[in-house]
Design brief:
Blueprint (H helix, E strand, L loop, with lengths): L1 H8 L5 H10 L2 E4 L2 E4 L2 H5 L5 E2 L5 H15 L1 E5 L3 H10 L3 E4 L4 E5 L11 E5 L5 H13 L4 E4 L7 H6 L1 H4 L4 E6 L4 H9 L4 E5 L11 H8 L6 E3 L5 H13 L5
Parallel strand pairs: 3-4, 7-8, 7-9, 9-10, 10-11
Antiparallel strand pairs: 1-2, 4-6, 5-6
Helix pairs in contact: 1-2, 4-5, 6-11
């Protein structure tokens, strides 16, 4: 942007040429679409590829384009075929089948002195969503602490890690069924809670609708809620809380 403005000021670009250059700034055209390469500069977080619904080749091309620009790329909701296609182009790509997250290159640099993002899940069935949140938060430059199987059916398990959670900069609470863990955490801790309802549960859980409504109606203040199974969304929000907490 500075280069474009300098060239305009020096008369090297007309007003119309500068306008067109600024409009297209931050976009990269690839075979499958336009990558938002300027998102990192605007928001502090790069574009991440949502792999679900895309062909392996589409995912691979998008990941390759982001990797070429940033030196790293992340994909969520990926499968083994998509991983194979990406790995053929980016050999340093790795895939976690539990979270369905694939990553090429290193994570963003962690800022010294920032508190960790704590990811706490209610049950083992919530692990895929919890791991998506944890891996995405790590990619976005956060230290991550994991606490699994801490649901309120055994409240002592949650109380056992309460002191550890108080050291975090943000807590991502992942729970299905009644989703009560998020409200309990909001009432026990001064740390911001990002609640993630999961689609885990029997019939009346309605594939995550019941915990979503429970979390939205949490009596305890300080609880924000993302969409059902949206571990990535929780990670992005928690990362902004933690990485921006001491911004000057």
């Amino acid at each position: 942007m500075d280069d474009i403005l300098d060239r305009f000021a020096q008369g090297e670009l007309t007003r119309e040429q500068a306008r067109k250059a600024l409009v297209s700034l931050g976009c990269a055209q690839v075979a499958v679409g336009r990558l938002d390469t300027g998102r990192l500069e605007r928001t502090g977080q790069p574009e991440v590829v949502f792999c679900q619904g895309k062909t392996p080749d589409q995912v691979a091309i998008a990941m390759q384009g982001l990797y070429a620009h940033h030196g790293r790329a992340l994909g969520t909701r990926a499968d083994a075929d998509q991983f194979a296609a990406v790995e053929a182009l980016l050999p340093d790509c790795e895939y976690d089948p539990v979270s369905s997250v694939l990553r090429a290159g290193n994570t963003m640099e962690t800022i010294d002195g920032k508190p960790a993002v704590a990811v706490i899940s209610a049950g083992t069935a919530d692990l895929p969503v919890a791991e998506e949140a944890a891996r995405c938060a790590a990619f976005l430059g956060c230290r991550v602490e994991r606490y699994h199987d801490c649901g309120v059916a055994g409240l002592h398990r949650l109380l056992d890690v309460r002191a550890d959670l108080e050291q975090a900069g943000a807590v991502i609470a992942v729970a299905g069924m009644d989703g009560a863990m998020a409200s309990v955490l909001g009432g026990l801790s001064a740390v911001p809670v990002v609640a993630v309802p999961t689609s885990v549960g029997y019939g009346a859980a309605f594939d995550g609708l019941a915990p979503l409504l429970s979390m939205l109606n949490a009596c305890a203040p300080g609880v924000a809620v993302v969409n059902i199974d949206n571990g990535f969304g929780a990670a992005a929000f928690a990362a902004r809380i933690v990485r921006g907490a001491s911004r000057e």
